[in-house]
Amino acid sequence: MKKSMNILLVGVGGQGTILASKILSHVALAQGWDVKMSEIHGMAQRGGSVVTQVRLGEKVYSPIIEPGEADIIVGFEKLEAYRWTHMLRPGGTMIVNDQKIEPLPVLIGAAAYPEGIIEAIGERVSRLIVVPALDLAAKLGNPKAANVVLMGVLASVMDISRETWDAALAARVPARFLELNQRAFAAGLDHRERKEA
């Protein structure tokens, strides 16, 4: 790994972005890395934006990622992902859940949800991984596990052992949901591996 890595997680309140960032931070700490994390909640409880910046490496002094400096962006909702593409560095990786969650202006009829968002993201970034995370989680019996499906995809682009991720899940996920989340993580990892095959 280079001296530091910047990972941005963006989504909508209720999608589990904060839990995902805590799993990621746990993984990084287990690697012996320095970790800084910053969370921004925009009316998160009402379906507003949630953005988490995670910086990890040998020594990290600030949790803030500057525009054009994110190595990886994980978009839990496709419109939110599109809004944050300016943060990705050239050659960086964008992982996008193809889920659509209509923001308040759309719900009240003041705006329309844009068409062709995934294609528009593809025009802005060079490395795009699109994941049907909600569908994969629903097949496991709980759509709320989509966040951990996305962590499985993230794990596939980071050089960190599966055991380290498994230990982070066990440490951060309540025991009654652990088995489901382990299967969700495996589904994300498997999805990515099948795409690469």
Automatic annotation (TrEMBL):
Transmembrane segment boundaries: none
- Residue span, Pyruvate/ketoisovalerate oxidoreductase catalytic domain: 13-189
Q: Which Gene3D superfamilies match?
A: Pyruvate-ferredoxin oxidoreductase, PFOR, domain III
Q: Which UniProt keywords apply?
A: Oxidoreductase
In its UniProt record, a GO molecular function of this protein is: oxidoreductase activity, acting on the aldehyde or oxo group of donors
Q: Name one Pfam family in it.
A: POR
NCBIfam families referenced in this protein's UniProt entry, alphabetically: PRK06853.1-2, PRK06853.1-5
This chain belongs to the protein called: 2-oxoacid:ferredoxin oxidoreductase, beta subunit
Q: Which organism is it from?
A: Heliobacterium modesticaldum (strain ATCC 51547 / Ice1)
The root-end lineage is:
Bacteria, Bacillati, Bacillota, Clostridia, Eubacteriales
Which gene does this sequence derive from?
oorB
